[in-house]
Please model this.
Amino acid sequence: MQSRTTKIISIAAATVVVLGLVAGAYFFFFYGKSPTLTTGTVSSGNPFGSGGSQAGTGSTGTDTGTSDTGANDSGNIPAQVAPKLVEISSAPVGKGFIALDATTTAQSASSSAPTSGVAVRYIDRESGNMYQYATVSNSSTRLTNHTVPGVQEVSWLPDGSTAYLRFLSTGTGADEHIDTYRLPADGSDGSFLAEDLAEVIPESTTHVFTLAPNSSGSVGYLEAADGTSPAVLFSSFLSSLSVRSSAGAMVAFTKPSANLDGYAFLVSQKTGAFTSILGPYRGLSALPSPSGTRVLFSYTDGGNPHLAFYDTTTHATTPLPLLTLADKCVWSADGADAYCASPVSVPSGTLPDDWYQGTTSFTDRLWKIDFTARAATQVADLPTLVSTPVDAVSLTIDQDESELVFMNKSDDSLWAYSL
Model:
């Protein structure tokens, strides 16, 4: 594997933005009205990267975590806040969780799976322990006793059997690195993946995609779920790419900022070839549907955010009636709908940068977008249900669309709303 440049990124913000040769810290997103939309020229070329098939040479680290048998579980006691709204954990959690239906293959393969309802698996930020919340019993159970303190971001294998915990660590000489720890849900020891990964995205139960900076930009790898046998999928001269992936499509886009033009590309999951689909848009962020036929995206214009979707078959771009950001949305399993958090009002400032930097926050409502009807319906008016403002991020939904799970960015607490 190519040498991976050591550089500090803030995982809590998840967005150190360096666009091409322009260096600087930029962060993400929000809201407004709809101007005329344009898209970039669709091409089969790759102006920002090239595919690759050569094998990497990296290796994973050894397990250095410690057993934790005395963690404080008090923050993980669920509280029924409203008839359909539960605060699963008042203690901060890692950004990223998974909602599993009890009837799925994933759940039936787990000894801790409930016999009905939905199980939400999440990571306690302070300890790094894995918990499972059961909707039927309205209770949480700790699944692991392996301490990985200070977890910022988490991604999951589709069956919930393994979580990838990302956190900052200090090495020799007081230099900081991003570590990724693979934590199995069965309580067995895990292992470290390569150092300083910018993205870790599970593609299946057996493989993950990882993105890493190098001396000439970024390199995307496909590797085994345990971090071994990496092979280069693509390389790009952009050092500030974000990648979102589904079963049907992979999308790479330049990290959003109100001060820079953003571009998005479809990436072949077989060859790594890039196809330009969107741009230039300020504050661009994108999210592909499960089938890959649509890409939900947001951008800013006149200081306000806008939401739209791109059809990968017709190459048409369509504005949507809900004004919010793609990063505050999640697709339904069939791709017919999307659920989004949208603010009651938009604060002044430079968006989306101020939101990513944490200098501004929002109070959200929950909405459902019907792509067939091109209509948005309010699901929950959160300000009327809870006294604390909820700035919902990392939205997650189960296969049967019965529970919408999200984190409150203001305090990193974990919530679930029954649909």
